[in-house]
Design goal:
The protein is an alpha/beta fold and 218 residues long. It has helices at 5-17, 37-47, 69-84, 119-122, 138-146, 161-170, 202-207, and strands at 29-33, 88-91, 109-112, 129-135, 150-151, 153-156, 175-178, 192-193. The radius of gyration is 19 Å and the shape is globular. The N and C termini lie far apart (57 Å). The mean pLDDT is 94. Residues 7-214 form the Aldehyde dehydrogenase domain.
């Protein structure tokens, strides 16, 4: 399914905020065409209401607390760092979620006016903190996507499945989703670069437990 701008924004936020951002496959860098940056920012502000944060026992909560006080403090420090680096807060910020002051809740936070050299773009925060990075054309988008020490999972959203698949083939990542957030448990899962060695799932996941034996007979 080829997503509309509104659907694309929702999918991007869903990918970034999964497990409250505490996921190795969370899509924390959101690359947006510079010509449509203002449109996407407006859609993100509107869509954030669909990702309420706070008390995990509340059935309406989508973004729960951090796993520990130490992680909560780490995420707070990164939000402050983003502001110091010159990024602009689109939503969220430092502090706990209103109504959940006693827990380790983090406000869902989106930074914009981010460049890929900022630490909030290059380092894994493991919290509900996303960054919006504009690009001029496909070549720049691909260069930014691949300019990272990691390569576990990526998501391409495009109005053209052919164009999306062409981009996906060039992204240095162990897995790339194109216009979907669905997963396939029989497909190999693993990363490039500092995102690990080997593969899990499917027949590829079994190979690590096998010990090949060679028999040479004259």
């Amino acid at each position: 399914m080829m997503p509309t701008p509104k659907t694309a924004v929702h999918m991007a936020l869903e990918a970034g905020f999964m497990n409250s951002g505490q996921a190795c496959i969370a899509g924390t860098r959101i690359l947006v065409p510079a010509s449509r940056k203002a449109e996407f920012e407006q859609e993100m502000v509107a869509a954030i209401a669909q990702f309420p944060a706070g008390e995990p026992r509340d059935a309406q909560t989508v973004i729960g607390p951090m796993v520990s006080r130490k992680q909560w403090q780490r995420v707070q420090d990164y939000i402050r760092l983003g502001q110091q680096e010159g990024a602009r807060l689109l939503v969220g910020g430092v502090g706990r979620v209103e109504g959940a002051e006693k827990g380790w809740s983090v406000q869902p936070t989106i930074f914009t006016d981010v460049n890929n050299q900022m630490r909030i773009a290059r380092e894994e925060i493991f919290g509900p903190v996303l960054v919006v990075i504009p690009y001029a054309d496909d070549a720049e988008a691909l260069a930014i996507a691949n300019d990272t020490d990691y390569g576990l999972s990526a998501l391409v959203l495009s109005g053209s499945s052919q164009r999306g698949e062409a981009m996906a083939l060039q992204i240095e990542s162990g897995r790339v989703l194109v216009n979907t957030l669905e997963h396939e448990h029989l497909a190999p899962f693993g990363g490039f670069k500092q995102s690990g060695l080997g593969r899990e799932m499917g027949k590829w996941g079994l190979q690590a437990y096998l010990e090949p034996k060679t028999l040479l007979v004259g």
